[in-house]
Design goal:
mainly alpha, single chain, elongated
Amino acid sequence: MAEKFDELSALAGQAAGLESAQEEAAAVGQGGAPVPPPQTNAQILAGAVHLAREASCIVLDVQSPRAVLDEATMQQLGEVWGAVADKRGWNLNQLMGDWGVEIAAVMTTVTIGMRLSKAVGAELEARERRPKPAPQPGTVDAG
């Protein structure tokens, strides 16, 4: 009997937590979706380094930035420059206004677009290099 009571109490607690989370989300006009916390300066800067690394690899067609700027190094850069931004009172969330998501979307789209462009270019170049078959005897070459 005590087990049933504990399970019911746990379920009631979960339900109360869900209701309060939904009420909080509705209060900010998100239709039930939780509002993500704003990113710290360090997180924003680490993300910017990541996007710059990927863009440079694609634009320059090199891999060395990925070797040098691994995840730990990008995190470290974000933390040290985030500390500088914090010390100077810069709030990158405020500086970007509410355009942070759009800036990240544009940078990501450009990076993916460059990858696609290089892949298509390489495929077309490979097609052009393929030797054309020799004409069969008795046929006229139209090309």
